[in-house]
Specification:
about 90 residues, alpha/beta
Length: about 90
């Protein structure tokens, strides 16, 4: 898991145009201290997606289905998905 966190951290810190969005539940996401990442769990995404500041997004999720559903929703709202990480 160390390598995954390093990849996510470099993706979020190095690129100021990309907003990292963690769509995992709060009780899973708080364990990982990821810099420049906002946590909006998938069930709350419809209500809080406007808090995403940048139009290019890197998704962090617990499985492929969670990331896929989040990406589909955000694409419909005009966001561009630059990548994803399963964590």
């Amino acid at each position: 898991m160390c390598c995954v966190e390093d990849t996510v951290t470099s993706q979020c810190e190095d690129n100021i145009d990309v907003q990292c969005v963690d769509v995992r539940d709060y009780h899973l996401a708080y364990k990982d201290d990821l810099v420049n990442t906002i946590n909006i769990p998938l069930p709350y995404l419809k209500r809080y997606y406007k808090e995403i500041n940048r139009k290019t997004v890197h998704l962090i999720g617990r499985d492929e289905q969670e990331i896929s559903r989040s990406a589909h929703f955000l694409k419909r709202k005009g966001y561009r998905i630059s990548g994803s990480t399963i964590q």
